[in-house]
Amino acid sequence: MAQPAGPPNFLTASLNRAVAWARTRSMWPASFGLACCAIEMMATGAAHNDLSRFGMEVFRASPRQADLMIVAGRVSQKMAPVLRQVYDQMAEPKWVISMGACASTGGMFNNYALVQGVDQVVPVDVYVPGCPPGPQSLMHGILTLQEQIKAAARSGR
Amino acid sequence: MTRVETVAASMEGAVVADSLGQTVVRVPRESLVTAVTAARDAGFTMFIDLCAVDYLTRDPRFEVVVGLLSLDPPERIRLLVGVPGDDASVPSITGVFAGADFYEREAFDLFGIDFAGHPDLTRILLPDDWQGHPLRKDTPVGSVPVQFKEANRAT
Amino acid sequence: MSLTDYLPIAIMFGIAVGFSAVSLVLSRLLTPNNPTPEKLEPYECGIVPLQDPVQRFPVKFYLVAMLFVIFDIEIVFLFAWAVRFHDLGWYGIGAVSVFTLLLAETLVYVWKRGALDWNLARRRRRLVVERELEEAA
Amino acid sequence: MSNPPDVVTGDLEALPSTQHAPAETSVPPASSRRTVHDLWMSGTEAPSDMGRFTDEGAQEMLADDSGTVLAGQMGTLVVDDYERRVEPSGDEIQIINMGPQHPATHGVLRLQIELDGETIRRVKPIIGYLHTGMEKTAEALSFMQGPTNVTRMDYLSPLHNELCFSLATERLLGIEVPERADAIRVMMTELNRVASHLLWSATTGLDIGALSMMIYGWRERELVLAFFEKTTGLRMNHNYIRPGGVAADLPDGWEEDVDGIISGVLTGLADYESLLLDNPVFLERTKGVGVLAPEEIHAYGITGPLARASGIGYDVRTAFPYSGIEQYDFEVPVFSGGDVYDRFLVRFEEIRQSLRIVKQARDTMPRGDYRTEDRKVTPPPRARIDQSMEALIHHFKIFTEGFKVPAGETYQAVESARGELGMYLVSNGDAKPWRLHVRGPSFAHVQALPAMLTDSLIADMIAALASADPVMGDVDR
Lengths: 157, 155, 137, 477
Description:
The structure holds 4 protein chains of 4 kinds.
Chain B: H1 3-9, E1 15-19, E2 22-26, H2 32-41, E3 46-54, E4 62-70, E5 75-83, E6 89-91, H3 100-111, E7 114-116
Parallel strand pairs in B: 2-5, 6-7
Antiparallel strand pairs in B: 1-2, 3-4, 4-5
Chain C: H1 7-30, H2 37-40, H3 59-83, H4 85-113, H5 126-136
Helix pairs in contact in C: 3-4
Chain D: H1 5-8, H2 67-74, E1 93-98, E2 110-116, E3 119-126, H3 134-140, H4 146-150, H5 158-173, H6 179-208, H7 211-232, E4 241-242, E5 245-246, H8 254-276, H9 280-286, H10 294-300, H11 305-309, H12 316-319, H13 340-363, H14 382-387, H15 389-400, E6 408-416, E7 419-427, E8 435-439, H16 441-447, H17 449-453, H18 458-467, H19 472-476
Antiparallel strand pairs in D: 1-2, 2-3, 4-5, 6-7, 7-8
Helix pairs in contact in D: 5-6, 6-7, 6-13, 6-18, 7-8, 8-13
């Protein structure tokens, strides 16, 4: 966003906050389901504990229309460049949630095949613990990300 | 004489054994294709599994294990083929069972066993530029050392 | 028919243009804009494309586009009739039905020629053939 | 009944115990099309030359493939039933990627498709995007920790993986599991089959266009997952079925939960069947689509609902019964159409049959211990540790080094939701398995995709691919 010059006065600060409010209220996740966490991500999106309360129930397949990438599952060495390519093709502003232990740190598979933590490939904003994290913990991660965005807007980043 | 004995009898050098209740036929490497064809004609028509094992210090170092299944009287057979470590090559059975294609590519990818006669023997699970064959016993697990202890103190 | 009768149309037009103008300007102002080389590349499910996609699309796609245009324009002409169909009475219905019949005739021609059939069955699995014979018998 | 070591696998005790020294990651050097992403810490701006390409040039489909490779990609390797071979006109050929990140590939499967207009001429599946090296990790974990690793392979039916690993280990150990453990295992795995089929019908309904299936398909599955969470502690990846029995006994009041699941799933199933099975659009999309011939099923080793929809009634539960499943009576649904419609029918009927088994297991659940008495395998109850020194020694030994499994090799198969899930387990007398190979049913199904998908429209291909129910954890391991 064109960064208004000078300290955040009333006009530009409230614009920042308004834009941040608009962005957090309907972040569309890019469906990057890899392994077991993808099943829990789909369960979060389904009717029982649905994501549409946060305006996020529509999982955009193509990165062009998505502004949040939930890396749900273990990232193998063969998949890392693909993950990086999809991340690069997402439009700004974009955020990344690393869902589950395998995405965040390689989890229980400390071996040749997995990237030990997806932050070696893409910048991650929120790490959701769990293996797989339940729908409630994923939603908690999403709410934390929304707080993060609003806090960043308040501080005029 | 059960079907397994007829299958074994039709190949010289085949030895039938019993491993915890399951019939196992050890087959010399050269007559693997004839053994699989004989098994299929004897009724083991469904190809179930092909995998490799690395015994590291045993004389034929590698072992290719072919699992077949017959449906009407439900019965399983397991063919074991010893493969020496230096020239790890086995005749491919994709001619007999088309389903062995991916299994042989996986055995090649993770163990480095060459399957002579396979239509396109390339890596299947790892990217092409991967050095080495990870499931061999002399390859380390490849784990990143986890620095719990040496993590820098909060200065 | 003084000019004021056209006022509502002008307001409608103004709102339409205004809405699109505002949304375009706002998005131009607020959205960050840095086109990186990766973003300009075609999206191939995450795989980096080596050669750019084939430009020559098969003719079937073009054919379907033409068929759509024909039948879409037909509906536009029906609008003119639909607004005043009370006053036009039977004469109107006659004219429109001739018009529609002509177009229906083109649909039948196109159907018979097989332009709508996308999948020239080159491979009919034995199970499918057996099932159809079963159902026929 | 010891097997003669020299014939079967040679002298296994002589093999060195596998103490892998933790070594640096052997990061493969970069090559032409692939630069390995270096360590890049989050928060900082990404270095510009991040990994860009992925080097599977050799695995990709070539424009001029020929011979058996072409026949394999066109799916005519086993049964060639092309009525009219139409040579494609040169200019219209497109090879596109239905790649790893695609909503309709049910995971990170990559299909390279040669398109002749809208019709698919040939398909090449490329897998490996979820390869987690689980078989290598299994060699570094003890038998006690095995189920945690194995349960993450086929993440739609984790309990089947654990059951297969536990049965294989118990056969090598030569121990028997008490009746109650067997009955709990059968009931839990059948509930897992119900949950997996419900998820499959939801995602396949979504692929075919019945969006309400995706929204409501999960409703009944949550019932089953709630029971799993109550019993095993986790919704997925339970590590509940372990060598020697199950981890914990059933919670109090589990009978009412199971009754609730049975009635809930049956009413839900009735809704889905009325929604789908007579819907003309659904019939148009699924009849005669993605057909598999019996010869292909034999050649590719396809088992499970796919085989039973093409007339081959092979079910591991009836052919090679395990865990006392032969005492429950249930039918194996077999249809002969071989297309997506019959796969729906098979899976819906299997949900009913599994619920019948669950009902019988619930009514005749035997009393007794849920773990074997053999203290060498199962840890002693927590209270006993404070009282007896021997219990403390057993507890310590099991949880530090794990129990030693006598040398030998065995193949154990279980009927998972996707087909025959087999495990070839070799032990050299150590506390860690020497080799564990998992024969995933989806691996065979992915290999048979060209036979199902070629010469159909892209929309039909999506339906056929979804009906094969490939789970990539099962394929790539």
